[in-house]
Write a structure and sequence with these properties.
The structure holds two protein chains of two kinds. Chain A is mainly alpha-helical. Chain B contains nine helices and ten strands. The chains are: A mainly alpha, B alpha/beta. The interface between A and B is medium-sized, with 18 and 26 residues.
Chain lengths: 293, 248
């Protein structure tokens, strides 16, 4: 990093040499590749991890345990826990897809010309947006049947699929708000000029309004996805084998107290490595859209 | 203007429009003939813009009647599509679609509303862009154009629907004097070609030059109307005189 004059980011207030060097740096700050994983943030995560392992090993030796080192045990369990972590990602993608489709519909229902549709969708949105995610998850696990029958077909509904639905509900409500807010952010004059050109309401929405809000809706949508990914660990509470569950199982199997912090830190790092770039990209998109208006 | 005036295109009869308790239009009657250019002048808030919106059925009227080529606008069973095919309206703030290029802005409605042939529409759109002297900007996005250029694209966009009458709602109010001239030139040419135009404007000089007939409105009523020279140089009503003294 470049030493900056205290209290300013303005290039003009920097010494000339710094200002020149500041330019590629600023360009990189807006770029994806060079700064997405800042060396600093990655290094601090790594340092934290090494520190946790060292402390754990020291604890183990102080306790006089001549068994395997913490690193060996972590490596032994890492593949299994990583599989669980991948399952978290799968659940996050499915819940996001389901929630986005349902949420888009719910959001559009909120701008319907029919008052009952508008009212009902508003209530649904507020309900699912302001309910604790875990409570919704519990409800889905216990209220959804284990199989559904449609036209003589029996479709099994395994627990993990119910969990996907449970997580998709709050996502749906949040996406609905993003969509509604996006549509509202387009000036009424756009509706008026489309109407004057004889576009129907539906045509106006799909050809004029929505294409314009898509850009504005992307950053909050990605933000929501990052939050959802981290929240997928909730499914371990309702007994689904995810990264959290396997990490806990490993701890139980090893019976080694000093493993507790490094093991969860390992899982945490994976989530961090997955979600942090999303957060950076979101920030970058927000900045870019702000400039273009 | 020296061209022949044809049959009535827009006829308003005793139009009244209220927003809540406020009466915005009261007893408005006017007749606009084919090829005629009408200017509506008057202080802000006198209902001029509302009148234009009523003609295009963007705002419903409460009582009275407006017909566009015989189609009654104040009819619950009105086919808005067929009305809006006949009426083009250009707004003060251009209102182009920012996510589409100038050419696409022109082509969208004829393609998707009128379902016309693409090659035909594109040829017409390019011809109209040439007419407003923006051929080289066909692939530019509205954000890349100046205010005057955007407004000319907006005029071309309305013309691309082949309307019978064009409404202009203070289309130069947001422009600086330089770009104003470009837009006024475009409108002047349209009027000279015989397009039926209704302009709400604050450009008195322009009104005197292009209008066949000028209406002065204040407080939602037509105070007086007449040929531009008479009304602008020799107003009968004290209210008109007071307004003109202020703006001229």
């Amino acid at each position: 990093m470049i030493a900056r004059a205290p209290g300013t980011d303005l290039p003009v207030l920097l010494p000339a040499g710094d200002a020149l060097r500041a330019r590629p740096d600023q360009a990189a700050a807006l770029g994806w590749t060079s700064r997405s994983f800042t060396p600093r943030s990655l290094a601090s995560l790594l340092a934290l991890f090494v520190l946790a392992v060292l402390v754990a090993d020291a604890q183990a030796q102080a306790a006089g345990a001549p068994r395997e080192s913490v690193v060996t045990m972590l490596l032994k369990w890492a593949p299994l826990v990583f599989q669980g972590f991948l399952f978290n990602l799968l659940v996050s993608v499915l819940a996001m897809a389901l929630g986005s489709f349902a949420g888009a519909a719910l959001g559009l229902a909120q701008i319907s010309l029919l008052a009952p549709v508008r009212g009902a969708s508003w209530i649904a949105t507020q309900f699912f947006r302001n309910a604790p995610w875990l409570v919704l998850l519990f409800y889905c696990m216990f209220l959804l049947p284990f199989e559904i029958q449609i036209l003589g077909l029996t479709i099994p509904l395994p627990a993990w699929l119910k969990a996907v639905v449970g997580l998709a509900l709050p996502v749906m409500a949040n996406v609905a708000e993003i969509v509604r807010g996006g549509v509202r952010s387009i000036p009424a004059t756009q509706w008026e000029s489309a109407e004057a050109l004889a576009f129907s309401r539906r045509q106006t929405l799909w050809m004029v309004i929505l294409p314009q809000c898509l850009k504005r809706m992307t950053p909050p949508w990605m933000n929501l996805y990052a939050i959802l990914t981290m929240a997928t660990t909730l499914i371990s509470v309702v007994g689904i084998q995810d990264g959290m569950t396997t990490a806990r199982a490993a701890l139980v199997a090893e019976q080694r107290l000093e493993l507790f912090i490094p093991m969860y830190l390992m899982l945490l790092s994976w989530f961090f490595l997955y979600c942090y770039p999303i957060a950076r990209l979101t920030l970058r998109l927000e900045r870019r859209f702000q400039v273009r208006g | 203007m020296a061209h022949e005036l044809g049959e009535p295109v827009v006829v308003a009869t005793r139009v009244e429009k209220r927003f809540g308790d406020a009466i915005v239009l009261r007893e408005i009657s006017m007749t606009v003939r084919r090829g005629e250019t009408i200017c509506v002048i008057g202080p802000s808030g006198s209902g001029k813009s509302t009148l234009l919106r009523c003609i295009d059925a963007l705002v419903p009227i409460d009582t009275g009647s407006i017909t566009v080529e015989g189609v009654e606008v104040n009819d619950p069973k009105l086919d808005k599509l067929s009305l809006r095919k006949r009426v083009g309206i250009v707004f003060q703030q251009y209102n182009l679609f920012p996510h589409r290029t100038a050419l696409q802005n022109l082509m969208m409605a004829p393609l998707h509303v009128l379902k016309q042939d693409k090659a035909q529409v594109e040829a017409r759109a390019r011809a109209l862009l040439a007419k407003v002297r923006l051929s080289e900007k066909a692939d530019a996005y509205p954000g890349e154009l100046s205010g005057g250029q955007q407004q000319r694209v907006a005029i071309a966009r309305s013309l691309c629907m082949n309307p019978s009458v064009m409404l202009f709602d203070e289309v130069t109010a947001a422009l600086d004097p330089e770009t104003k001239k470009e837009v006024l030139t475009t409108i002047r040419e349209l009027a000279a070609e015989g397009m039926t135009c209704i302009l709400v404007t604050h450009e008195m000089g322009f009104a005197r030059e292009v209008a066949d007939h000028v209406y002065f409105t204040d407080g939602g009523v037509i105070v007086e109307h007449g040929p531009p020279r008479e009304l602008l140089l020799n107003p009968r009503e004290a209210r008109t005189r007071a307004f003109l003294d202020q703006v001229l």
